[in-house]
């Protein structure tokens, strides 16, 4: 996401929406993809891309297996207690790859910040992690169109006693806001008049809920999908989430979306993937697959990778 989102950092917490929304992670990935030092066992990797659209699709069909790079972060992608690959992104990707003639799937779990370097060092064939699409990452990754659009939301005490529904409400009431370290929500709040000095940062949504219940903050701002996941624990019954919304700064909607990452130059594979994804969007199949993971109609999107790569 554009400059405000460039301030996001990588967080290893399970519920940290911060990770996929990080442009700093995207910038760091560019350097890592170019250097590829110790840890990958590779020298400098050429990311200039394949020629003629690439031949990865044909190779994967011959092998019959696609290796998926994931970062353990529900509801996007994770390995469950039974050792099974689960999440919205793998569920969608599996459906599409089967239709492309590839029937077997091998998850390769890595830290979120290692996803782009791992793609370029051929540890896996595609990033399947709900990764946010932005200009920095688009210089190193060939993205599919997004399969979901991110929305913001607030965690508040039950009944929303402060009646907070927007960043403007927080500014008007001079309320104490919490958010994650490096979250773009901080920039959205400041852009709507919230004083940065009144914003407290926490490691994740769980810590934010604890601060709410303790009365240290009046509201916690973050991404709706990660809040939905955090609330599933049921450990904080005094807290609820407001309706998801698209934040605005200076009257301009701040729209963001996540998709699947391929190596630069593999346009044949990316385009074939996109064609199947668009069919699923039009038929409603995408929503049916994504709904069990908390993705409702409001998270569906008409955004394209081309649009998001300009941000």
Automatic annotation (TrEMBL):
Pfam families: SBP_bac_3 (PF00497). It comes from the Bacteria. Keywords: Signal. The keyword Signal applies. CDD domains: PBP2_Ehub_like (cd01002). GO terms for biological process: ectoine transmembrane transport. InterPro entries: Ectoine_EhuB (IPR014337), Solute-binding_3/MltF_N (IPR001638), TAT_signal (IPR006311). Residues 65-297 form the Solute-binding protein family 3/N-terminal domain. GO terms for molecular function: ectoine binding. PANTHER family: ARGININE-BINDING EXTRACELLULAR PROTEIN ARTP (PTHR35936:SF17), MEMBRANE-BOUND LYTIC MUREIN TRANSGLYCOSYLASE F (PTHR35936). NCBIfam families: ectoine_ehuB. This is Ectoine/hydroxyectoine ABC transporter substrate-binding protein EhuB. It comes from Streptomyces sioyaensis. The gene is ehuB.
